[in-house]
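Re-running the complex after MR caught last week's input typo. The corrected sequence lines follow. Everything else is unchanged.
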Amino acid sequence: MFKYQRTDLPLEKDTNGRFLPWLIAFMVFLTVISFGVLLALNSVVSRWDSSIGNSISIQLYSQQNPTADNTVLQKVLSLLAENKDIRKYEVISDQQIMNLVKPWLGEAYETLDFPMPRLISVELVEGTKIDATLLEKQISDQGIDVSVDDHYVWLARFIDFVKTIQWVVLMILGFVLFALVGTVVFVTRTGLEVHREVIEVLHFIGAQDQYIARQFAGRAMVMSFRGAILGSTLGTLALFVIIFFLEKIGNNFVIELYPQFFYTGLLIGLPIFVGLTARSAAQTTVLWLLSRIP
Amino acid sequence: MLGNNPIVQFENVGLRYGVGPEVLKDVSFALDAGSFHFLVGDSGAGKSSLLKLIYLALRPSRGLISLFGNDIVTTPRSMLPSIRRKIGVVFQEFRLLEHLSAFDNVALPLRVSEAEENLVQKHVLELLEWVGLENHIRARPPTLSGGQQQRLAIARAIIARPRVLLADEPTGNVDDHMAFRLMHLFEELNRLGTTIIIATHNMSLVKKLGNTFLRLENGNLKIIASGNKENSESSG
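Corrected-run output:
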């Protein structure tokens, strides 16, 4: 794949094709970065969706009477137990609530005497959504002062935003692929024009269009493969640098998002894909243009 | 000239470039396998155009051309290479590929036919020796003399053992001695069964060899038998 095969056309002397590997390298570099961003966003959404998108929290306001508060809690728990969409629920302990509010109230929170609400974390059955307003009404109809927060409501907005970014990234990848094919087509067209006389001779001695197309395709593949190797290596290094800095600032989730196969895919899979795409684009271009010769 | 099974047949063929006047007018002839012909005429008479029609570089504006029994007007484009492989061409300006060695130039017709490389090696070396270029195997065409390039072009034209050999002014760049040597080479090929058509304006050579010849005058073709006797089966 690295060496040119013997060709009857002096393609290695083409000046117009010499910039092809560098252009391909730049495009592949952009692809690697875009692909990394796409995968990271994908993982963030799926992780958040599975961890908090599938849960709601119920807040029971204190009546400053522990016995009454417990009665209310038991009532609500029995209501939750009857609901088939709920997989499990857990009452958050006072200590856990204290730990949650500690950052806002400081060290003095233990000396403060104010009513703390009871919190219940509810996990829904996989794939189900619950109408938080309806659940809140069901509970408040029992005369209970309650607030039900559906995490999916704000998560959905975030997911919509991330999905928009994903579409933009996908569009960028599409443009890169389009530019790659376009560049190969342009270089091939120019090459055909430059070597018109040699191609004519090859035709006169009985060369099939496929024979000529194979020579252009082989060269396009080798040059693109070389460029893609360079681009994917630089792109992967750039991703490592980005991850390194994200880790430094404490955003360590990114590392988990790139398993080993991702890097292997970038370093091996992407150049092969680019090489084969360039080969196919060059071959199709040559066959199409030659078929127009009477 | 019109045998039962002509290898090349033209019927009322006309050719014009773009909207210009016809350079070939109602050309009709048929050539049998294994025949030897000269195509003569003044410069601009249409000799090269006629040869181009035979080696499928051009399509006729009208009329019918049949090569090896195939009507080339209706033959699909994908079939043309297999017809072209039966035709060897020695171009007037040789059209050797300058970036390739003498060996690779001669090997081209075999390689486009995807012949095995060991056969390519064997046949090309034999042929280069036959045309006296065995000491120039690695030489590039620009480093060879006119005569050497001519012999290289002939070697390329005959390496794949074509059924028809076309040569456009093959003696144009060589002295009389070399011209006769080349002619003997063509006669030798003809004896092996190859149909030869040589376009030339060297009438002394034509008369000396005494073959039937085709004369083009203002786009009209006349078939003249050997011995300089005009034949009535002319066209145009």
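None of the earlier attempt is carried over here. Chain B touches chain A through 24 residues (CB under 8 Å). Chain B has a mean pLDDT of 85.
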